[in-house]
Design a protein that fits this description.
two-stranded antiparallel ribbon; zinc; mainly alpha; zinc-finger; 4 strands; globular
């Protein structure tokens, strides 16, 4: 249950930042904090909701009692379905409802503060540039492994992106033909698109050259080292890395 202790967003940028914060909290609940989230969703309790907070935290709580609520409410009773389906399917279902709730909250603020057509369009475009909670939780976002500076399962293999683009058989002063230049440009564009598509499986943010990343050897998703509390030094001693989600998987009764 949320009483809005945080500043109410009034501009497109403020609403978007509020959206990102809430989204970050929901992603944590469904990935890195999944064990804690699972335990809180006891089917024996009353109807529970998953709330994402603007400060990237989350909580499982009862819905607000006031009618109508101050903000749109998340899906009600997520705990009742927990033991009736496989865990990954249940988490995916909660993720879908979370995406729907995030959009409803963002555009509630837009309606409340009179966003015009251009402001609503800009807000949606900013939101649409981020992967959905469902995409992050299910790993359906395209992961570009070559763009990651560290791959635990192939330490001795240099990334293709670290190799010089110039062929050894190509003289330094030689001029590329127009066709070769076009093909080279297409390859560079593809690599840039792949690099931009690499997203952290925990927070959902994009890859950055100056950040340490690590790949889970089970689900093959990439994570910021800081998000999963793994340093480069610690990674050197890990033979097979399992992300928090894969480490916590077990048969549910």
């Amino acid at each position: 249950m949320e009483s809005i202790p945080h500043p109410i967003p009034r501009t497109v940028e403020e609403v978007f930042n509020d959206f990102k914060g809430r989204r970050g909290g929901l992603i944590k609940a469904l990935t890195t904090d999944v064990e804690k989230f699972y335990e809180k969703c006891d089917p024996e309790k009353e109807n529970l909701c998953l709330y994402g907070m603007p400060n990237e935290t989350w909580e499982v709580n009862l819905p607000v009692e006031e009618v109508p609520p101050e903000l749109p409410e998340p899906a009600l009773g997520i705990n009742f379905a927990r033991d009736g389906m496989q865990e990954k399917d249940w988490l995916s279902l909660v993720a879908v409802h979370s995406d729907s709730w995030l959009l409803s909250v963002a555009f509630y603020f837009g309606a409340r503060f009179g966003f015009g057509k251009s402001e609503r369009k800009r807000l949606f475009q900013m939101i649409n540039d981020l992967p959905t909670v469902f995409e992050v939780v299910t790993g359906s976002v395209k992961q570009a492994k070559e763009a990651t500076p560290y791959n635990n399962s192939s330490k001795s293999k240099p990334s293709a992106k670290m190799q010089p683009r110039q062929s050894e058989s190509q003289p330094r002063g030689a001029k590329l033909s127009s066709k070769e230049e076009e093909e080279s440009g297409e390859e560079e564009q593809e690599e840039e698109e792949e690099q931009g598509a690499t997203l952290c499986g925990a927070c959902g943010d994009n890859y950055a050259n100056d950040e340490f990343w690590i790949c889970c050897d089970i689900c093959e998703r990439w994570f910021h080292g800081k998000c999963v509390k793994i340093t480069p030094a610690k990674a050197e001693h890990i033979k097979q890395y399992k992300c928090p989600g894969c480490s916590s998987k077990r048969v549910r009764v």
